[in-house]
Design a protein that fits this description.
single chain, 743 residues, alpha/beta, Rossmann fold, 5-stranded parallel sheet, 4-stranded parallel sheet, 52% helix, elongated
Length: 743
């Protein structure tokens, strides 16, 4: 076994949690250690997880562990370090699902599953990803939509090459012989015996010779086979120099098999795609990495070679005339022999009928005595009673039949000599070919066809093997194309833009932001929002009064506060993944921890309160740069205590310069009474309630503004609809309390 393969096997065994059983399952599925390493390094989650007994969770673990020391961060899982709550993980997971819905290939869907937000220390990788998209998409976007749709249809057929096995499909009546023990051991390690016989010999006895000659094909490997006296005794042999052969020379089917089945369809689709891209990217071939290195002529050659075999690896007709003829002869052999027997017997019978020979009684008696149990008569005995010219004619008939058969079977000397044994002069009439010689002749013809087939397949295998690296490059290019088109499509559908990173600052400022989930689920026009958190430059207005790390977001229920928190989380996560974001313009100072706490749906139990206090204690203690998004924390405890809890948490978060916090609350006025830290209060302003009870709202938050709540508008609606002066006065007094609190 080669050193490289041993090394790769060690790599597989060194992956944490990958025991011998899982390793065995992987190798059984992918056939070789090299294929296993390729599948893991390329993060082919779906293929690995499809193996019985592994599943997606284990597949992810294997891939992540394999890439755990990868400095590029391409597949390094930072989610446990950055996405610190279940709610922020749910936002991330939904982003990934949207991304995956735009990919055409499972390969890129899997790649998106392994695209994680990166910490601030990986800003260079984040920028590199975005720059890659920016440069390449600008050129791909020149392709018209109709062509893009054709490309997407073909991309659906592109998959990684699936390892193929030919053991079950082939009954190889083939033997590989060597007189070199070291070579024999290497062939054993390469598992050659799984597919054909393997033999180590020192000398060639008659018994061994008979054994070898029973095979369709003998492949002899030696240091110097020309000096072996017995090589000319092997009738159906191919000789290989021990220093100048590969597995392709022994088992060409193993190479060809990799190009069959689903892989054949992949290649056809890949070739069609490349032709389209070659036309569309004439001036922009650098758009796809390695695109210029793919030779159209070599790809054409690959397709032409594939066209010579069918889906099962059998040679198609009309590509190799000599082989077609040999196969036709084998398939029609029995019919050829039967037809010739009829021709011979009819010719002899006609000549005898034309003869004017007169037999005496004793001659007739002797002739009848020569008839055997099969009702045939010795041809030699018959010719004794016929005129000399008839005997000569019969000999000519047999000679002509032999020559005609040699021609029909396309035989050459010395192989053709066996035909003379097929119809000897001492046989019976009616003529029947000798069964032993017939079988021997047929076996020779089968061997001839098998050797021709082997030679053709060997050449095809070498041709295909030569372009296999090209195929790997082509597939990588097409997968990259799928990724780029997915990003391009989502950018167009959601009006995504590239974020601008502000180093040494903390926060997020975006103009024209939309909630990705609302757009994806409802596919309607979504209100664009401008918002700012932190001390980074404001991107949409020239103002400094909103630069604050602590924010309470107020407003009526159903006004869009939770949606805004989600939007902030989406933009931050996507920016730190190195993706375009759902906004017209974005400034962002990167975070190393992201927290999102959605509105509590349970009761304000002591357990929920205790757990929440512990969570916020950990957040306050953390020295990492963090974004904290909280939706109605007051739901975890009694109204009287909630403002104090919220105020103390915000005050402690505000004491450090390493966090930005946006908290949705209806208790803003109460919190402001207990907090001493500078805090900004924003409001999503409602303008009332319509006739059907729906909130009339401007979903763009007003900065430094305490928005009115839903009860205020309900009371106001009641006041406006009341014709009773006493009731109107009561409603007004109620509203005064709200307005007093807001002022």
């Amino acid at each position: 076994m080669k050193n490289g393969v041993i090394q790769k096997q060690r790599i597989i065994q060194s992956i944490q949690g990958l025991g011998p059983k899982i390793s065995e399952k992987l190798i059984n599925h992918f056939l070789t250690e090299e294929n296993v390493i390729n599948a893991i390094s390329e993060a082919r989650i779906s293929e690995i997880s499809s193996i019985k007994g592994i599943g997606q969770k284990m597949a992810l673990k294997i891939i992540q562990e394999f890439h755990s020391d990868d400095e590029s961060g391409v597949y390094t899982n930072y989610t446990n370090q950055i996405l610190m709550t279940d709610d922020i993980l749910k936002v991330y997971d939904r982003i990934i699902e949207i991304l995956k819905s735009y990919a055409q290939t499972q390969y890129i869907k899997d790649k998106f599953s392994l695209m994680y937000p990166l910490p601030a220390t990986k800003l260079n990788i984040i920028k590199s990803r975005l720059e890659n998209y920016r440069n390449r998409l600008s050129k791909l976007n020149k392709i018209n939509e109709e062509t893009i749709e054709k490309i997407k249809i073909l991309l659906k057929k592109i998959k990684p090459f699936k390892p193929q096995t030919f053991k079950d499909k082939l009954l190889l009546h083939r033997i590989i012989v060597t007189d070199n023990k070291k070579q024999y051991n290497e062939l054993i390690e390469l598992d050659i015996e799984k597919y054909c016989k393997l033999l180590l010999i020192e000398s060639l006895s008659e018994k061994v010779l008979d054994y070898l000659n029973s095979f369709d094909l003998v492949i002899f490997i030696s240091n110097d086979y020309n000096n072996n006296s017995f090589t000319d005794q092997i009738k159906n042999a191919i000789f290989l120099d021990i220093n100048e052969f590969s597995v392709t020379d022994l088992l060409p089917e193993s190479v060809i098999c990799d190009f069959l089945g689903v892989n054949y369809n992949i290649l056809i689709a890949g070739y069609k795609l490349f032709k389209i891209l070659k036309q569309e990217l004439k001036q922009d071939e650098e758009t796809l990495e390695g695109f210029k290195d793919i030779s159209m002529e070599l790809l054409k050659g690959l397709i032409l070679n594939l066209a010579k075999i069918d889906k099962d690896g059998e040679i198609k007709e009309e590509n190799y005339p000599e082989y077609d003829e040999a196969l036709k002869i084998v398939n029609s052999f029995d019919g050829i022999i039967a037809d010739q027997e009829i021709e011979i017997n009819e010719s002899i019978e006609n000549e005898i009928k034309k003869s004017k020979a007169v037999l005496e009684g004793g001659q007739i008696f002797n002739l009848l005595k020569s008839v055997d149990d099969s009702n045939s008569i010795s041809l030699n005995a018959l010719m004794e009673f016929l005129p000399l010219d008839i005997a000569g004619i019969i000999e000519e008939i047999l000679m002509e039949a032999r020559e005609k058969l040699i021609e029909r079977l396309n035989l050459e000397a010395p192989e053709s000599s066996i035909v003379f044994e097929l119809y000897p002069n001492d046989m019976n009439f009616p003529i029947e070919a000798d069964n032993f010689i017939l079988e021997k002749l047929k076996n020779n013809l089968i061997r001839r066809e098998k050797i021709l087939k082997f030679e053709i397949l060997t050449q095809l295998a070498k041709n295909l093997s030569a372009v296999k690296p090209l195929v790997a490059k082509l597939l990588n290019i097409l997968f990259e194309l799928d990724e780029l088109l997915a990003i391009s499509s989502i950018m167009k559908d959601y009006n995504l833009t590239y974020p601008n990173f502000v180093e040494d600052k903390l926060g997020l400022s975006f103009e024209g932001g939309i909630n990705l989930f609302l757009k994806h689920e409802q596919n309607i026009e979504i209100k664009q929002i401008n918002y700012h958190v932190g001390n980074i430059p404001v991107i949409f207005e020239n103002r400094i009064d909103i630069k604050n790390n602590l924010i309470i977001l107020t407003g009526a229920n159903s006004g869009g506060k939770t949606t805004l928190l989600q939007t902030i989380a989406q933009i931050t996560i996507m920016a730190q993944m190195g993706l375009p974001v759902a906004a017209q313009a974005v400034n962002i100072g990167l975070f190393n921890e992201l927290f999102f706490f959605s509105k509590s749906q349970g009761s304000n139990s002591s357990g929920a309160f205790e757990s929440s206090v512990k969570n916020f204690t950990d957040i306050i203690i953390s020295k990492k740069e963090k974004l904290v998004l909280v939706d109605e924390l007051e739901a975890i405890t009694e109204p009287g205590a909630a403002a104090k809890v919220i105020g103390s948490i915000l005050e402690m978060l505000g004491e450090s310069n390493n966090s930005c916090t946006v908290l949705v609350s209806h208790l803003a006025s109460q919190v402001l009474k207990v907090i001493k830290t500078n805090i900004r209060v924003d409001g999503i302003e409602a303008n009332g309630i319509d006739a059907e009870g729906r909130l009339i709202v401007d979903r763009n938050p007003k900065f430094n503004y305490l928005a009115k709540s839903m009860p205020y508008y309900i009371i106001k609606k009641l006041q406006n609809s009341s014709s009773n002066p006493e009731k109107t006065q009561i409603y007004q007094k109620m509203m005064n309390y709200f307005e007093k609190e807001m002022n």
